[in-house]
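Hi P.,

Sorry for the delay on this. The queue was packed all week, but I finally got your sequence through. Input first:
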Amino acid sequence: MKKDSSLLAWGLLFPTLLVLGCFVIYPALQSFVLSFQDVEPFSKQSFFIGFENYMVLFRSPDYWQSLRVTFFFLVMTVIPSLLLSLAIAITLDANPFFQNFLRTLFLLPVAISSSMAAMLWIFIYNPTAGFLNYILDVMGIQGPNWLADPDYALVAIAVATVWKEIGFNIIFFLAGLTAIPTELKEAAELDGASPRQRLFYVVLPLLSPTLFFVSVVSVINSLQSFGQIHILTAGGPMGESTTLVYNLYRDAFVKFRTGLASSEAVVLFILIMGATVFQFRMAKKRVHYG
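Then the structure:
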């Protein structure tokens, strides 16, 4: 009977394992192998060159700039997204009258593709006919060319990214807030705890598993952002919005430096894994289950 259950379990898992093996595991292993090779463009010829691709990568000023841009983009998207979505979710949880309508409203940006969202923000950021500069002009402020100015391009992309992803976070935070027993909040209120004390000593500790999950997903999504960057600025101006992923794309599909791009993919994978492991270690003392 136990053997039959094991066979059934493996039979149910096989389609998923097959898809993962063909489209995730095999490409990842192939990228790792190619990172040690010099691949001739538009041919199957490749030559083993050891760590040469990694040496070229770490000597490249453009790569270090993309790493810097990625760090700032991570900070400008993850922190505002978490804080705004948490504040909105707490507000909606305390005022449930319009909760369903507002939850749907905030979730709408998540339902559209990154390309459609980017096209919408292109119209908003338009320097002459855009809505944002129109509002600034009414206020007597000369609006910049948001997507062509090196000082504003990354900020503009970050704002569009936060707008696109914030609904996803709100849904999870609302689910976590709903799971908190009302009795605990009422008991804290009867004991004389202020709203601030109830938030920091009751709500947030019980919400910490959800906060941890959302933060991990947000960091990974930020490090993998590509679509909105490609459409809004194409990595410009002057490389000020070229992240690690966009630099990888450019080396692989514009310059056709497959080996170098594969080494970038390996380094990006290590960075994402390192960030995730760091968050898990930090969460051991700060996340409370049950």
